[in-house]
Amino acid sequence: MLAFETPIRNEIKMMKRISGLLAGGLFNVRLQGSGLLAITTHYDPVTLRVSPGHPVCTDPNATVAWSGSLEPTLRTDVSLKTFFGRGSGESIQMQFDGDGFVVIQPMEEVYVQAGA
By its UniProt entry, which Pfam families does this protein fall under (predicted)? Predict the structure, then answer.
């Protein structure tokens, strides 16, 4: 997040679910109100609509932001194929149900530990 207009209120929230931790770490910024927000992503961000009965699943490392009305849940697809590198996609995903939107970037954030 680069900036936001003053009518928007912000607070730092500790994440309660593991799915939120995967996307943004232990703490996230929660914004409330109306106004403009400036965010930065790798390449052009994509906004996905979430509606009741039509959940959206995203890669946690590509997930940038989501509506406050949505609470992500962790979805796993671990099988024998995953262990042999023959899986067809991500084995851990964030699933969003309800009414709102999810912003993703068309690139995964990969974090490398120093000295590894």
Answer: AIM24
Q: Which of 7, 3, 58 is nearest to 35 (CA)?
A: 7
- Enter the pTM of the model: 0.73
Kindly give the confidence (pLDDT) of every residue in the chain, 116 residues in length, as a single tens digit, with 9 standing for 90 and above.
Answer: 899 999 999 998 876 666 555 655 667 788 999 999 999 999 999 999 999 999 999 988 899 999 989 988 888 876 655 555 555 456 788 899 999 999 999 886 666 666 65
Question: Please, which residues bridge with residue 27 across strands?
Answer: 14
Q: Is 16 left (phi over 0), alpha (psi -120 to 50) or beta?
A: alpha
Where exactly are the structural domains of the chain? 3-104
